[in-house]
Amino acid sequence: MGCAGSSQSKADGTVKKIRKPKPWKHPQPITKSQLMQLRDEFWDTAPHYGGRKEIWDALRAAAEADLSLAQAIVDSAGVIVQSADLTICYDERGAKYELPKYVLSEPTNLIREGLGSLQF
């Protein structure tokens, strides 16, 4: 038996701090509504990839929150963060959870809707 936070600790005893994903580019320019549809589809099907629904729910809440709240969410849910950008996590039972970058941040080639051809 270990302490409650031992599973989240690295070898030096510190918890891995969450950070935003590095900038990324979608294969094609994408609108905000298309991005939101991709995210909704992912979260609707995520529990079918394995793992526990409550962990998927916690990961969604963390992905949609600011960094300090996201850190509190994953810590309280017992999520073990392998990649600080939340792309790879584990639960306390060892189940792996992989999150695509599109649920964590916006791509660099996001098309702002309603601007027509005036893209900057």
From TrEMBL:
User: What InterPro entries does this protein map onto?
Assistant: DC-UbP/UBTD2_N, DC-UbP/UBTD2_N_sf, UBTD1/2
List all Basic residues biased stretches: 16-25
Which residues belong to any copy of the DC-UbP/UBTD2 N-terminal domain? 16-113
Chain intervals with Polar residues compositional bias: 1-11
Q: Which domain of life is it from?
A: Eukaryota
| Region (Disordered) location | 1-31
Specify one Pfam family. UBD
Q: What's the name of the protein?
A: DC-UbP/UBTD2 N-terminal domain-containing protein
Q: What species is this protein from?
A: Citrus sinensis
